[in-house]
Write a structure and sequence with these properties.
This protein has 558 residues and is α+β, with helices and mostly antiparallel strands. It has 14 helices and 18 strands. β16 and β17 form a beta hairpin.
């Protein structure tokens, strides 16, 4: 089959969505449906006209505390009567179909052939992997128990039985220490020439490498693909796994939920709680023509967050100081998101996981389905996947920022993160951290976020405030170092006396902030016994709190 032009969106065949007439357009205010966070208990939503909340269940209370969310109008449900026309009104810009991840099998000799250069090198791994390879369910090796041995812009996994003889051979050429634990490859992070690395593996009896690479989102167009990445003739090539996906740009953030609620093969990962009503990412496991597929539909906001900080959450902190550090990182992320344009944050992505011997075959199998067509999931009423039909909730940029600030403000007002830095965090502190991250659009699946309508949610015990609105306004007005310096000067000039009080000792006139660094801009308490520091985002948030408390005049908002 001949190659298509680079403009077609794919080197093998254009995506079904590439031919859709999805033009960018502004959403008229008259066409924005109002969000109803909780349907009336006396009138449950009809399954043909409204989605079932992904967290709904028969034992959920019919009466829940009311959330007075001033930004609820920024969340709107996609109409179910005519979603196709409404999607066209909103405007979707499809990007080229791409490959985002692969897990391939290669022989050591084939790997050396691909990277046969004196400049090529790998780095040994000195930690046990957090995430293992996917399991093989039939006629294949147990990849899920393999050892992560090295990395070189991709991960190299081998059978653990080759670890000892590999390091024995490697010791003849350079000094390296094997790891003390079964799934720890090395004690150090030594760099090894690729030719030496492959030679030692071959001498150790290794005949198969598992190569894992993810996050590259290489467009499937001719100019970016030089050769087939897989070794098609390998005896285990049928276990090669690919993620074929497509992103759609939109002026609003898209969140998803299954119309049928909880069901087998469908997983929900809520985002932007509580404003979203538990909408977020949906994972679907299904079959098509006797072949297994996994489909993930999620907002592009996830990639925007990763572009600023790919390790926003990491693991659950063991100390209260670790919790505070992640909360501070969340505040910086809110500030970063405020600098992005609507279309840079909005939209969503559909990603399909399939097993195939080659990238070309994987793309052909995905193209033969309608899985990359958003209309297929949002508008179908009949067909083999009708029960997996999705509904969407659309969120403006303002809604995202207001929701994130609101969750943080509830925790800040309740003083949830007070205590000694070395203390072990309590359950409510961990839950508040998870919800703060979720409130700005991050759900790594490590801990469950609080449900939007949970009557026992920790935020019900905190008073309401509009401090987050002030912080959002300041974040949009003051972003660079020079602008935040200007904000600092304005805040001092509008306060009485002409000082900005220290956050650690706000009632002590001897504690006041002064400029500590201009690039990046930060301030420090002038009291030598205190010297409390505030980075840029934390300073903006402190000034917003002082504005709300009347300490700093509202002239800084002009």
């Amino acid at each position: 089959m001949g190659l298509a032009s680079p403009q077609s969106g794919s080197i093998w065949a254009p995506s079904p969505v590439d031919t859709l007439d999805l033009q960018s357009a502004h959403i008229p205010d008259s066409q924005q449906p109002n969000l109803n966070l909780s349907p009336s208990p006396e009138q449950p939503p009809d399954e043909h006209t409204a989605p079932v909340s992904p967290s709904s269940s028969e034992d959920e209370p019919s009466e829940v505390p009311h959330l007075d969310l001033s930004f609820s109008d920024e969340f709107s449900i996609l109409p179910h009567e005519s979603p196709v026309s409404y999607i066209s009104t909103i405007g979707l810009t499809p990007q080229a179909v791409d490959v985002d991840r692969w897990e391939l099998v290669l022989t050591p000799e084939e790997y050396l052939e691909r990277f046969k250069d004196t400049l090529a090198a790998v780095q040994l791994i000195n930690r046990a992997p957090v995430r293992r390879l996917h399991r093989t369910y039939h006629r294949g090796p147990g990849f899920d128990s393999w050892l992560l041995l090295a990395k070189a812009n991709h991960e190299i996994w081998v059978d653990p039985r080759h670890k000892a003889p590999f390091f024995t051979m490697l010791g003849k050429y350079q000094t390296a220490q094997p790891g003390q634990y079964p799934l720890q490859a090395s004690l150090g992070s030594a760099h090894v020439s690729t030719s030496v690395f492959v030679h030692c593996l071959t001498e150790a009896g290794c005949d198969t490498l598992r190569i894992k690479s993810y996050g590259q989102k290489t467009p499937l167009v001719e100019r970016f693909l030089n050769r087939e990445p897989a070794q098609v003739l390998h005896r285990w090539a049928e276990h090669n796994e690919w993620d074929i996906g497509q992103s759609f740009i939109s002026p609003v953030v898209w969140l998803f939920a299954a119309t049928a609620g909880r069901q087998h093969g469908v997983q929900h990962y809520p985002m932007l709680v509580p404003g979203s009503g538990n909408y977020g990412t949906v994972n679907i496991r299904t079959t098509h023509r006797n072949r297994n597929f996994s489909i993930k539909v999620y907002p592009r906001l996830v990639h925007v967050i990763k572009s600023f900080n790919s390790r926003l959450q990491g693991s659950i902190p063991k100390t209260l100081q670790g919790v505070r550090n992640q909360v501070a990182g969340s505040l910086r992320m809110i500030h970063n998101l405020s600098t992005k344009e609507d279309r840079a944050m909005g939209g969503f992505r559909i990603e399909v996981t399939v097993k195939a011997k080659s990238l070309k075959e994987a793309h052909r199998l995905v193209t033969a389905t309608n899985f990359l067509d958003p209309h297929y999931w949002l508008a179908i009423g009949e067909g083999p996947h009708a029960r997996e039909r999705l509904t969407a909730k659309l969120v403006t940029k303002k809604g995202v920022l207001d929701n994130a600030n609101w969750v943080y403000e509830q925790a800040a007002q309740a003083n949830l993160f007070t205590g000694s830095a070395a203390d072990r965090p309590t359950k409510i502190q961990i839950q508040a951290l998870v919800d703060i991250l979720n409130g700005l659009g991050w759900n790594a699946g490590i801990r469950r976020a609080t449900k939007s309508l949970d009557p026992d949610a920790w935020w019900h015990s905190t008073p309401s405030t509009d401090r987050s609105q002030v912080f959002r306004m300041l974040s949009e007005m003051y972003q660079t170092d020079d602008e935040i310096k200007e904000l600092f000067d304005k805040a001092r000039a509008s306060s009485d006396p002409y000082v900005l009080p220290c956050k650690s000792q706000p009632g002590n006139p001897d504690h006041r902030y002064q400029v500590h660094s201009r690039t990046p801009f930060r301030v420090r308490c002038s009291n030598r016994d205190c010297q409390h520091k505030l980075q840029r985002t934390a300073l903006v948030h402190w000034i917003a709190e002082l504005v709300q408390g009347g300490v700093v005049g509202r002239a800084v908002l002009e």
